[in-house]
Design goal:
The chain has about 375 residues and is an alpha+beta fold. Helices cover about 40% and strands about 20% of the residues. The structure holds 3,4-dihydroxyphenylalanine. Pfam families: Phe_tRNA-synt_N, tRNA-synt_2d.
Length: about 375
């Protein structure tokens, strides 16, 4: 910067001349007006309003003018710089608004377009429940056995000591395949897998069999003509009811929580003797029958403290004989429960129909996994 110089001829400080300042101002305003976007305007600001712009440099020369000329030159430069700054601010506002508008248009998302993102598939909650049950038994050394859903009448009934006069054999309960003389049914229970297993393997037998079964039930909140059961069968030397009880207690605690045990109520099934109905201790009230505050009946077990779970017993020697197992050497136990029913009370579901209607929103709520 030049130092003060009283002899300096102001006419010679070219950048401070009125027409020069005017020119710089015109050039700046033209550049501002021509700035097509915010980046260009940024450059214009640097070039025409920055520290190294012609007017900023001219401003520095003011000190070199004789005192009487400084005021006028200062005003001239100041006004020009003010006008430029104003023009930049105004242009900036316009460009920003334009930019925003353009972004709104460019970034518009048409939510009605088909998506390329695919929903991940999920396994059905009942499949997960079946697998979980099978896994619990596999962990105890059992094998998973399977049988066909279209089954021979003999295996579904006769081999299991369900004689020809048994009420379950009437047309009311059973889907019969045509023609009737072929004696083919849709299995009404997973128990024929017991017979199939004993006919094809030698003891010791430890099998679990989850699967689909069919009965001519009306479809409503608690019945479906197709549902799922899990069957268990053990045949070995010295097997007693005590082994059965211990196994089911373990099964219950694994499925419903620590300390959840079972109780047996005497019952009758043709394929077991003795037979029992199995109840599982309510895992919500843990057997008290009361809700959390102790004010009302527990919703899950309806105040009973126990929930009906399935049937079980010591395999009837007649079944062992029908399936080629020597009852003098071997004994066994068997049990069967509804998988859908277990799922329903485990998840506080009042209506089983959503389990069969294939709405993925229902399945997702139960945390389906691939
Ligand atoms: N099959 C029986 C039913 O569908 C359930 C059952 C009861 C299975 C006792 C068994 C058993 O293995 O021992 O009702």
């Amino acid at each position: 910067m030049s130092g003060p110089n009283t002899d300096y001829d102001p006419v010679e400080v070219t950048p401070l001349k009125a027409d020069q300042v005017e020119e710089m101002r015109e050039a700046a305003l033209a550049a501002v007006a021509a700035a097509a976007d915010l980046d260009a305007l940024k450059q214009v600001r640097l070039d025409h309003a920055g520290d190294r712009s012609p007017l900023a440099l001219a401003n520095r020369e003011i000190g070199a003018l004789p005192p009487q000329a400084r005021k006028e030159a200062g005003q001239r430069v100041g006004q020009a710089r003010g006008a430029i700054n104003q023009a930049i601010a105004a242009r900036e506002a316009v460009l920003e608004a334009e930019h925003e508008e353009r972004m709104l248009v460019e970034e518009t998302v048409d939510v009605s377009l088909p998506t390329t993102r695919r929903r991940r598939g999920g396994r059905h909650p009942l499949t997960l429940q079946s697998d979980l049950i099978a896994d619990l038994f596999v962990a105890m050394g059992y094998e998973v056995a399977e049988g066909p859903v279209v089954e021979a009448e003999w295996l579904n009934f006769d081999a299991l000591n369900l004689g020809p006069d048994h009420p379950a054999r009437t047309l009311q309960d059973t889907f019969w395949a045509e023609p009737p003389e072929h004696h083919i049914v849709l299995r009404t229970q997973t128990s024929p897998v017991q017979a199939r297993t004993m006919l094809t393997r030698k003891p010791p037998i430890y099998v679990v069999c989850p699967g689909r079964v069919f009965r001519t039930d009306e479809y409503d909140a608690t019945h479906s003509p197709m549902f799922h059961q899990v069957e268990g069968l053990v045949v070995d030397e010295g097997i007693t009811m005590a082994h059965l009880k211990g196994t089911l207690d373990h099964f219950a605690s694994q499925l419903f929580g620590d300390g959840i045990t079972t109780r047996f109520r005497p019952s009758f099934f043709p394929f077991t003797e003795p037979s029992a109905e199995v109840d599982v201790r309510c895992f919500v009230c843990r057997g008290t029958g009361m809700d959390e505050e102790g004010a009302q009946s527990c919703r899950t077990c309806r105040g009973e403290g126990w929930i009906e779970w399935g049937g079980c017993g010591v395999v009837n020697p007649r079944v062992l004989i029908a399936c080629g197992v020597d009852p003098d050497v071997y004994s066994g136990f068997a049990f069967g429960m509804g998988i859908d029913r277990s799922f329903m009370f485990r998840h506080d579901l009042e209506d089983l129909r959503p389990l069969f209607e294939g709405d993925v929103r229902f399945s997702s709520a139960f945390g389906t996994e691939i």
